């Protein structure tokens, strides 16, 4: 199942990127019970982004001294991992938690989302 997304990261002293875009192809398994759905998947992803110059180097009054990698665009390969647990209330409404992560050499990331499902839910 292909997936993807773009997110904006406000630059600060801890995150060295303005934005990152992920396009992933994942394969996984799905387990169903009468009112729950549990999925997990992993795969391979291409990640494109832009490093933020202000958080990577320090101004010393002379030439910039880089604390890490130089500013600019990057394109890398990562390993995405997704997990979902959905509680179905009938056949057409559900709520759940979704966790996402991507392990890569540039900026690994993770997140947890509260999800609402409207439509046919196969349990």
Largest sheet: 6 strands, antiparallel
Question: Which structural category do the helix and sheet elements fall into?
Answer: mainly beta
Strand residue content: over 45%
Distance between the termini: 19 Å
**Whole-number total of structural domains:** 1
Helix content: under 10%
Description:
The chain has no helices and eight strands. Strand 7 (93-103) and strand 8 form a beta hairpin. By secondary structure, it is mainly beta. The strands form two sheets. The chain has a six-stranded antiparallel beta sheet with strand order 1-2-3-6-7-8, with no helix packed on it. Strands 4-5 form a two-stranded antiparallel sheet.
Short description:
The protein is 0% helix and 66% strand. By secondary structure, it is an all-beta fold.
List the helices and strands and how they pair.
Blueprint: E1 2-8, E2 17-32, E3 36-51, E4 57-58, E5 65-66, E6 72-88, E7 93-103, E8 109-118
Antiparallel strand pairs: 1-2, 2-3, 3-6, 4-5, 6-7, 7-8
């Amino acid at each position: 199942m292909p997936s993807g997304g773009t997110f904006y990261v406000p630059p600060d002293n801890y995150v060295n990127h303005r934005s990152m875009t992920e396009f992933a192809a994942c394969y996984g398994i799905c387990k169903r019970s009468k009112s729950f759905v549990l999925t997990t998947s992993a795969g391979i992803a291409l990640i494109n982004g832009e490093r933020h110059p202000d958080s990577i180097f320090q101004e010393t009054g002379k030439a910039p001294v880089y604390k890490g990698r130089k500013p600019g665009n990057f394109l890398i390969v990562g390993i995405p991992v997704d997990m979902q647990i959905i509680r179905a209330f009938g056949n057409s409404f559900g709520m759940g938690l979704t966790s996402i992560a991507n392990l890569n050499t540039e900026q690994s990331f993770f997140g947890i989302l509260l999800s609402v499902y409207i439509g046919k839910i196969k349990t």
